[in-house]
Amino acid sequence: MSQLHVIDHPMIQHKLTIMRDKRTGSKDFRELLKEIALLMGYEVTRDLPLVDVKIETPICPMVAKKVAGRKLAIVPILRAGMGMVDGLQTLVPVAKVGHIGLYRNEETHNPVVYYCKLPEDIQDRLVIVTDPMLATGGSACDALQMLKEKGCANIRLMCLVGAPEGIARVQREHPDVDIYLAAVDERLNDTAYIVPGLGDAGDRIFGTK
Ligand code: PRP
Ligand code: URA
User: Is 47 a residue whose pLDDT tops 80?
Assistant: First the structure.
C-alpha cells in the first residue's frame, strides 16, 4: 500500500489558507504555490541516499555528505502542475522536467491526454509528478500509468489538496506510489470539484477565468 504523507507544517497551512481565499489574485496564488512546492520538496526528497565525499574546508580536510548520483525528474500534469515546478527546481536545479498534458472532460470528468514529452532516460530517474489538485484521481492515475508504460518504477505524486476519493483511487490503482499532500479535504461536489478546495487551480494560476 502506498503511503500518504500529509505535510502540514504551519507555514504550509498558512500559505495554503491564503491560496484558498477567493480574494487572492493570480500573482499571489502563483507565488504561494511555488513557495509551498519548495517547502513540500524537502519532505518529498527527505530519504534521498547520501554518499561520503572528501573535501577540504578552509580549516581542514573532512568527509562530508552529498546526495548520491540518483537522478530526478519532475513531471507536471498540465496545466496546473506547472505551478509547482519552479519551487521544486529551486531545490533540485539539476532535475529534468517532462510534461504530461491532460484535461478533464467537463461532463464525464474523465481525463483526456493531449501531450506527453518526457526525458529520454525517464525510466532511470526518481520521478516526482506534480499537480495541485487530486480530485477524482483520474488525471493522476492516467499520468502514473503513462509513466509506468515508459518503464518508470520509482514515482512519487506531489499534490497540494486531495479529496478522499482521489487518494483512495491512487492507492488502489498505484499502490507503489507514495502520495504527498498539504491537506486532505472533505469531499467532491457534484461537479467533481474539491470541497472546500481552492476552486479551479489552472484558472487561478493562469488567470483564465
Ligand atoms: C485539474 C487539476 C488536475 C485535475 C484533477 O486539471 O489540475 O489535473 O483537474 O482532477 P481529477 O483528479 O478529477 O482528475 P484540469 O483538468 O482542470 O486542467 P487544467 O490544469 O488544464 O486546468
Ligand atoms: N480541478 C481543480 O482545479 N479543482 C478541483 O477542485 C478539482 C479539479
Answer: yes
- Separation of 150 CA from ligand 1 center, angstroms? 22
C-alpha–C-alpha distance, residues 112 and 127, integer Å = 21
Domain that holds residue 34: 4-206
Positions marked catalytic = 104, 108, 200, 203
- CATH number for the domain spanning 139: value is 3.40.50.2020
**Percent of the chain, pLDDT > 90?**
92
Average pLDDT of the chain is 96
Rg of the chain over Cα atoms, rounded to whole angstroms, equals 18
Whether residue 133 has its Cβ less than 6 Å from ligand 2: yes
How many Å lie between the centroid of ligand 1 and the Cα of residue 104? Answer: 6
| Number of domains composing the chain | 1
pTM across the whole model: 0.96
pLDDT for position 2: 81
Q: Which of 94, 55, 62, 192 is nearest to 137 (CA)?
A: 192
